[in-house]
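agent> Task received from the user: take the single chain below, predict its 3D structure, and emit structure tokens. No templates, no multimer pairing.
agent> Plan: (1) validate residues, (2) run structure prediction, (3) serialize to tokens, (4) report one or two observations.
agent> Step 1 OK, no nonstandard residues flagged.
tool_call: predict_structure(input=
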Amino acid sequence: MFAIVYCLTYQHDWTLVLLAGALCLASNLGTILFLRSAGRSKGMPRWIWLCVAGAAGGFGIWSTHFVAMLAYDPGIVVGYGRDPTLISLGAAFTSTFVAGLAAVSLPPSQSNIAAGLAFGVGVAAMHFIGMAGLQVPGTIVWDQRLVVVALVISVAMAIWGYTLTRNWKGTNRSILAAASVLSLGIVLMHFTAMGALTIVEGGPGTIEPQALSKSVLLVTILVVSISMLASGMSASIIAFRAAKQASASETRFELLLQGVTDYAIYMLDPAGVVTNWNVGAERAKGYSAADIVGQNFARFYSEEDQRNGLPQRALEAALANGRHEAEGMRFRKDGSSFWAHVVIQPVYDDGRLIGYVKITRDITQAKIDGDRIKEVSRNLDLALENMSQGISMFDRNERLILANARYSQLFGFPENFIRPGLAYYEIVRNGYQIAFGDGEATEARATDHYRRHMATMRSGQKTLVHQTTGGRSILATFNVLADGGWVTTFEDITERLAREEKIAFMAKHDALTGLPNRPTFNDYLSHQLTIAKRLSAKVAVIGIDLDKFKEINDQMGHVAGDFVLSTLAARLNGILRDEELVARLGGDEFAAVKRFGDRAELDDFVARLEAALTEKMEFEEHHIVPGASVGVALYPDAGEDAETLLANADLAMYRAKHEVGHNVCFYDESMDEVSRDRRRLARDLWAAIERDQMYLHYQVQKSVATGKTTGYEVLLRWNHPERGNIPPADFIPIAEECGAIVPIGEWVLREACREAVSWKDDVKIAVNISPIQIAHANIAELVRSILEETGLPASRLELEITESSIIVDKSKALVAMRALKQQGVAIAIDDFGTGYSSLETLRSFPFDKIKLDRSFMNEVETSQQAKAVIRSILALGRGLSIPVLAEGVETLSQLELLTSEGCDEAQGYYFGRPARMEKQAAALNTAA
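)
tool_result: status=success, residues=928
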């Protein structure tokens, strides 16, 4: 120790010693900073920084050593050998480089010790090699113990100094501390080693001529050291600032990356191993960074995809194409799956592949929505291509956007001609060229079609009918869009028009004969009367009724009757001239109209009619001459409106039917006393209710199976003050003709409901409703108000309607009956089987009961046909689940027949004659 103190105190120049210490601290600080930059770099930059650290640091440490040596003054002249001096410099370079390489390359647990050993041993070696070049006029003697101590100090301080660097992650203060410890270690090692040196004068040692002088060596060392340190420090500071900025940028990028939660973003090494993991990846796939970093990304794929090598092929595709983008099923940590959109891009560093960046986004909902849209689009395409209608859509520039195959089929366009982008005019022109060939006429037609189509559409009209050369009718329906484009649908309505024409014809003509029906006749008659009034002309209304039609039907069957009607219709239709019309009004009733100016014209028309009606016809070897009664009413003499003229023509026709030898009769008021009598009765009918001349009888209705009373039918009676009791068959038609049936019917309904309230709960009241009531009154509202007024439950009221009530105005009757049904009122069809459309009536209206007409019961005991009809109607009722009530039961045998055939109810004289209710009360209260 004394030798060290003595050496330091008396044998060194303190100015140079302090300069050496400062140079040593600066050198070590620069070395540490260079090595920190190397530790934060990879690849070639790391090697560059290691070389800079080895060169600058090694030279600085070597300079420290020799400045200290230059401060050494043993009291004799000394020199420095060139070769040992340069070798010592190489030792400083090598030790600093090796120490730095160990510090930045080895694991943290080994790097500090290895770097300290390399640095400590290298610095000591540099010192003693340099001392070996010391030239003195004497002999150098070493204290071996102090040499060992110097070596230990060098190694120990070096290990401590590198430990303080904290593997280059420490603060600037820790870096300064590490540099200070390394400098202190060098200084202590130097002076300990110098204390181990003793120079014995007079030995063989000499100073060589080429030895470096002290002053030259000092200046050279200082200039080079300071230059290298300054350059290295500047580079280190610049690099440090750049690294700091890069680190800050990386930190911001990392924060940004971690802040992205909708995307899984992570790095793969070249082998596909996950190297980092963001929050979005953890959220999307369920793995934490600790779970997945270091694992191969193939685990996100299904086992099948892994077996097929899909993950590796994805990396290969990204490497080959610079980018790989795909969609597919991926799996989370919990085993659940999601549909992912994946982008993989290779990452290079100085041209070397260092890995891949992989971005994954969960697009499950987008996939579901996309699949749904695809399905909707596919279904829409299927719907469009399988529509019976053609459809086309054009934009505001009249360019085709879409059209289905039916569009081409309807207009005969060639396959693949219709395509998006075609101008509408081009399509039109092509269509006309297909139909008519090329030419100016075709061009003109196409232009006219185009202009007409566009004008129609732009005017707001919604439809237009095209007639094709093939005779087809195509209905075009336009829908103009807000942006100026339009959608058009095309429908082949050829068959529909034919059906509508047929329906229109059927609506205006009789189905059997093809002649105009009653509504058409009435319209035509009204039209002719209007013309006649304007022209002061005359109009003949002619009623025609066949004389022997019933006999033909009964004797030869309905086929023969239909043959007669059809044949007569053809004959009558064949004799018509201008301003003439013949119509079938129903059954065997016909009517004709003739507007004329000269009576001879009318006589000729009547003669032609008479000839056609009496001409013989052949049917299955039968000679048939039907004959007819004809009544003629003339406008304006016999009436000025259609209804009066028809009625008077009927009066004249009925007179012709009853007068022998007169097949044709003209209306004559003086001769038609019956008509006048009917008018008197009509006048009396209006006052009958006010004068209390009307009263009600009730006829019991019973269950055929049990004999229990099920209800009563109310029957209207009129006790005329002069004529006594007038049969309903006489006055009810008159009441219907004059309209008195409306107030009479309302009175009957109200009185019957008021009476029925006092009966047992299960006994119904049946009331007949006239066709006039249905046609001229709100029958549903009337019934509702009367039920509310009298308190009778709707379920106990049954309204009886004849087929003629329905036929007069079928649609209005249907509306009325449905309204009644909604109230709970039962509807029965009366006199069933006597009309000409019974089956159609049953099919069209919601009846609750069928009343079999009494005419069938009158003949049931003598006529097999009547029995067959009854059986048929009863079977029909069962098939339709509609109960049947038979009217006119007068004998036990009739009742037994009904019982055996399964009839539901019956009424007639066998059960009791109609009577006032007070006479029925006892039976009502005791009926079982």
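agent> Step 4: summary for the user.
Residues 1-6 have pLDDT under 50 and may be disordered.
agent> Done.
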